[in-house]
Each structure stands twice: as structure tokens, then as C-alpha cells.
Amino acid sequence: MDIKISEINIFPIAQRESLIGFGSFLFGDCLRISGIALHATTTGRIKLLFPAKKLGSGYQYYAQPINNETYELIRTAFEEKAEEIGLFNE
């Protein structure tokens, strides 16, 4: 897959349960996606939750990966950025 994920930003918060911050990134040099919740898993990885609004029967996502391969590409980019800024060292 030849998709460029760049300009990754992480905005750490005081941890509340598993929530550790929010993030944004530039997708393919043409679309900014923001409001992504970053959660720490028990295995030390990052789980991403994409922005959505709750409807009676479930959630309507504003933006989300359409397959696991794309999700993993984005998640890996966030993990690399988190390590770069020392997010888990706080």
C-alpha cells in the first residue's frame, strides 16, 4: 500500500483510564484527519478510536480506515510518533 501518513501530531492529556491523548495526521498530503482518541492497551500498544457521533442504533463515523491494513499503517505511525516524543516515558 502506497499511502503517505505525515504531519502526525499527538496532544497528550493526563491519563484517564486508558485514554492518553488525541491526535491528528495528514493523509496522502491532501486530507487532515483530527480528533482521534489514543488509548494505551495493556500490552503497551496504542489503540485508535476515530471521531464519531452516537446515533440510536450505533455510531456514525466522520472518518475511519476501511480495512485493517490502513488502520495498522496509521496506528504504527502514531506509535512511532509517541515513542519519538516519549509519551510512554511520562
Molecular structure report:
With 90 residues, the protein is of the alpha+beta class. It has a single domain (5-85), classed as Stage V sporulation protein G (Arylsulfatase, C-terminal domain, 2-Layer Sandwich), CATH 3.30.1120.40. 20% of the residues lie in helices and 48% in strands. It contains 1 helix and 6 strands; from the N terminus they run E-E-E-E-E-E-H. The strands form 2 sheets. The chain has a 4-stranded antiparallel β-sheet with strand order 1-2-3-4, covered by helices on one side. Strands 5-6 form a two-stranded antiparallel sheet. The N and C termini lie far apart (34 Å). The model has no long low-confidence stretch (mean pLDDT 90).
Query: Which class in CATH terms?
Result: Alpha Beta
- Shape label: globular
Q: CATH H level: which superfamily? A: Stage V sporulation protein G
Overall domain count: 1
Number of helical regions: 1
Mean pLDDT: 90
CATH topology: Arylsulfatase, C-terminal domain
Tell me the β content: over 45%
Q: Which sequence of SSEs, written as H and E, runs from N to C? A: EEEEEEH
The termini sit apart by 34 Å
In short:
The protein has one helix at 68-85; strands spanning 5-16, 19-27, 31-40, 46-49, 52-55, 58-61. With 90 residues, it is an alpha+beta fold.
Keywords, please?
90 residues; alpha+beta; Arylsulfatase, C-terminal domain; four-stranded antiparallel sheet; two-stranded antiparallel sheet; globular
List the helices and strands and how they pair.
Layout: E1 5-16, E2 19-27, E3 31-40, E4 46-49, E5 52-55, E6 58-61, H1 68-85
Antiparallel strand pairs: 1-2, 2-3, 3-4, 5-6
